[in-house]
């Protein structure tokens, strides 16, 4: 008896599209029935290499290839409309991050899924948040979720390991423009980090954002961001990111009443307090004495399978069996978009925003930025690109 296969189509043959193709070629349960790109030469070339059919319009791919599922790997603005078109046809969707550029578009995609689910209850909607599969991040989620740290008081994430050159930004005419991409580091590099933040700690109740537009690069979007979060449980968060720091750092500190967890340089260390810090500060008679604590390095199995392929395998398995959990449900994608939009809305209005905020206000602001943009890109320049360098920061 042969392996049961899912007929899959791929929309978007840029850098990340190539990653999806190489993964799909190794998965026995996928039959690639078509590839699609607006650039016909590119679609033809990949189709020939993969022994499949080329399409130049995603609707033709959906209507003519016989696909059951689609992987979407196009520039961000197009994600929601292609998702909606797929769901209207009862097609399973695995979409690259982010779900959308702004909250209103994310809602459109989720609403389409909800409507279609009534007709096709088995419809699968996944998002490519592959960083949830990374061994260290999985372990952090596990430790925080266990309650070992007790009441959380502070999370500080300095994630500046995203260095990008001017040549990178010049390599695609859609990159780093309000009209083409809809944002900078928060929209392109950091959806994974914002997703991880909400996955572990939830969405902040209040956001104060400070975004610098084209501070170090000739771009019209943000390349340096500092954000401050407040949560209803009393925890505060700091989120500090830029594409203009080298050497960069990825340091995550999670502080609770029972200790501190620190991730940096592929090491995870925990300081465990002998008693609760909150209890100690109320009861101790000493003015300055710290809580006694011990430090331990947490062992993490870094050989465990992770990355895009794991996300795709879970997606295909759910379609075939109706069982198992996706790495990230598509409906969860609105959460990281909410945080990103909240940061930018706060920065532009120069005031702290309450979550949920007025998503129409942010969309209007974005439309204004698009319409008043005077940034003119020079013709795209090819760069040497190894996409694996951009993952897992």
TrEMBL record:
Residues 137-261 form the GFO/IDH/MocA-like oxidoreductase domain. Transmembrane segments: none annotated. InterPro entries: Gfo/Idh/MocA-like_OxRdtase_N, Gfo/Idh/MocA_Oxidoreductase, GFO_IDH_MocA-like_dom, NAD(P)-bd_dom_sf. It comes from the Bacteria. Residues 6-119 form the Gfo/Idh/MocA-like oxidoreductase N-terminal domain. SUPFAM superfamilies: Glyceraldehyde-3-phosphate dehydrogenase-like, C-terminal domain, NAD(P)-binding Rossmann-fold domains. GO terms for molecular function: nucleotide binding. This is Gfo/Idh/MocA family oxidoreductase. The lineage of its organism: Bacteria, Bacillati, Bacillota, Bacilli, Bacillales.
């Amino acid at each position: 008896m042969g392996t049961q296969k899912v007929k899959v189509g791929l929309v978007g043959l840029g850098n990340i599209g190539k990653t999806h193709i190489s993964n799909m070629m190794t998965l026995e349960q996928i039959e690639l029935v078509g590839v699609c790109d607006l650039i016909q030469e590119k679609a033809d070339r990949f189709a020939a290499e993969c022994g499949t059919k080329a399409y130049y319009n995603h609707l033709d791919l959906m209507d003519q290839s016989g696909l059951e599922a689609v992987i979407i790997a196009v520039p961000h603005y197009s994600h929601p409309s292609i998702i909606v078109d797929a769901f209207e046809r009862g097609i399973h969707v695995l979409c690259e991050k982010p779900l959308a550029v702004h909250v209103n578009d994310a809602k459109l995609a989720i609403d389409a899924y909800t409507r279609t689910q009534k007709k096709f209850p088995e419809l699968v909607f996944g998002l490519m948040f592959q960083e949830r599969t990374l061994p260290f991040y999985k372990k952090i989620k596990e430790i925080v979720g266990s309650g070992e740290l007790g009441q959380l008081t502070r999370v500080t994430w300095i994630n500046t390991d995203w260095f990008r050159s001017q040549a990178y930004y010049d390599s695609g005419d859609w990159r780093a423009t309000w009209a083409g991409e809809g944002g900078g580091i928060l929209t392109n590099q950091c959806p994974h980090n914002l997703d991880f933040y909400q996955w572990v700690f939830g969405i902040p109740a209040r956001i104060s954002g400070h975004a610098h537009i084209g501070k170090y690069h000739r771009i019209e979007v943000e390349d340096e961001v500092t954000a401050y979060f407040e949560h209803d449980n009393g925890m505060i968060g700091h989120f500090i990111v830029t594409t203009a720091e080298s050497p960069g750092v990825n340091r995550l500190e999670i502080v609770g009443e029972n200790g501190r967890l620190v991730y940096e340089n592929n090491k995870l260390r925990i300081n465990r307090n002998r008693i609760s810090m909150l209890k100690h500060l109320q009861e101790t008679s000493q003015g300055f004495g710290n809580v006694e604590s011990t430090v331990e390095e947490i062992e993490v199995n870094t050989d465990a399978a992770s990355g895009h392929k794991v996300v795709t395998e879970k997606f295909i398995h759910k379609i075939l069996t109706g069982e198992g959990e996706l790495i990230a449900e598509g409906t969860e994608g609105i959460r990281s978009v909410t945080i990103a939009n909240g940061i930018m809305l706060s920065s532009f209005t120069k005031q702290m925003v309450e979550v949920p905020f007025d998503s129409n206000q942010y969309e209007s602001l974005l439309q204004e930025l698009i319409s008043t943009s005077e940034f003119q890109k020079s013709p795209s320049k090819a760069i040497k690109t190894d996409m694996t360098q951009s993952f897992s920061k």
